[in-house]
Each structure stands twice: as C-alpha cells, then as structure tokens.
Here is the input.
Amino acid sequence: MLLKVGSKNDNVKAIQAKLGLTVDGVFGAGTAKAVKDWQVAHGLAADGLVGDATWSKMFAVIVARNESGLLVDDDGNTVEINSADDKPAAASVNVAAPVVSVPSLNLDKLKGHIPDAVIAQIPEAAAKFQINTAVRLAHFLAQCGHESAGFKAIQENLNYSADGLNKIFTKYFKTVNAADYARQPEKIASRVYADRMGNGNEASKEGYKYRGRGYIQLTGKANYAEFDKTVDEDLISNPDLVASKYPLLSAAWYWNSRSLNNSADKGANDAAVTEITKKVNGGTIGLADRIKHFKEYYALLA
Here is the structure.
C-alpha cells in the first residue's frame, strides 16, 4: 500500500476520519501535512506518505488488559476480538531468516492461515520451549492469534480516555485527576504499573518502559528480566525488541512459564482449549474464536 498526494479512494477517507479532517477521499496537501504531523508524534519517518508501516500503526487495534486480565478498549469496555477478522499481514516484525522447519511438523501448511512473519518465528519458539507437536503448536497459535487480534497487535497502546481510566484502573485514580492522564500513554502506564511487577515508582517511568509487548503481552520489568535470560540481546535496555523481534518467542516464554504444554497435551478438544484460555486470559473471553482456530491449525498440522 502507498497513499500519497493525488490518491483517491476509501482508504484515504479512513485516514482523514482518523485524523479529524474533512472526509472527501482525496489525498491533498492538507491530508499530507496532517499525516506528517501524526508520523512525528508516533515516531515514524515524517514523509507524509501512508505506506504499510504508517497504516499498520495508525489502525492498530487499541486494546489493553484490565486488572482482571480481560481485553478492553480505550474507554474501558470489555471487547471480544475475533482473530479471523481483518486477515492482512501482521504489523511489521523484524525477524531473522527462518529456520526451515520443526522436526515432524510441516509449517508450510500454515501459509495463508497465519502471516509469514509469524511462521518464520515458530522454529525458534518450538525449539526453546518444546512447542513441538501438532497439538501443542495448534493450541499455542490459537491463543497467540486471538490475544493479538490476528497477530496484528504487538504492543499495549494504553490510549485511555478519563472515563476509561476511572473504569479500568479505578484504584490508581482515586487520589489524582484522571483527566490529567487521559490520552497520555506514557503517564498512564507509568502510574498504573508503578511499584509492581518489578517496576520502579511512577517517576521512574518503568511502567511505560516495560508495558505489554508481544503476541501474549509480556508486562513488567521482572518478566522482561526473566525472558531476557533466553535471548542474547539486553532487553532491559532495549525492551522494544520484544515487539519488533520477539513477539512470538516472548509469548512462548509466557506459555512455558505457565506450564501450558502440559495443558495442551490433554488433547485436541474443547476442554483443553478452555483450560488454556483461562490460564492465558484469566477468563473465557473469545473462547469460541480460540476453539475455531485451534481446530483450523490442528487440522493443518496433525
């Protein structure tokens, strides 16, 4: 995808609506300037062009987890994401050249069902955390796909309104004005994740630095430190690598830390999916979608 001055289509309308512009579907100078401003604010190259990277970030699914572990939107409403919705390629993930296969499993059968960038990461995750049978991998991918909205959401957004903050993180905003934090992800994460999960106080901003990343969101400095032991890079200094390079491997570390291979080994059945879902999600939100995709992936891999 490449949208630029002169482009005319519904995608341009979507961009204009997102940026609060007049929605006429014509990519003119005003749209280009608004895109540049948005790119600057979101750490992208400010060229005024909408390619895959800008599009993916602009329309990333805005979800996070409340204190019960349930996915919520930026106003605090519980959401159920169907990982079958919107099946384009995952957000850009930097991965090394893929290992050809996992012994006894034909990963080529997954092509067209999950993004190639995810398939490329499977061998390392399978080798390090023994997610190396059809039933284990199918369970694992079904959970990762649902939790990340079809392998598209690779980091926690935390772009909450004041009402959302009061609804989701009530106890953290009893003594401060939520409006002072609204729509400011760094301030929000620094407060709600302060002094827990190995993070420092609010002033340290470690709550934001170690916010949720990966296909099953790795959250908190302590968890980053534990996962860091499994890779060569320094993730404490470079936590963005969890999203850009290790979204699947970090999910596999979480999977292993909860002994979910044992749950997966209970079989290719709804009961096993339900047990795993409760351990991953804290409830059974999205169970039907998880079951559907487990069956899809297992049929391909078995």
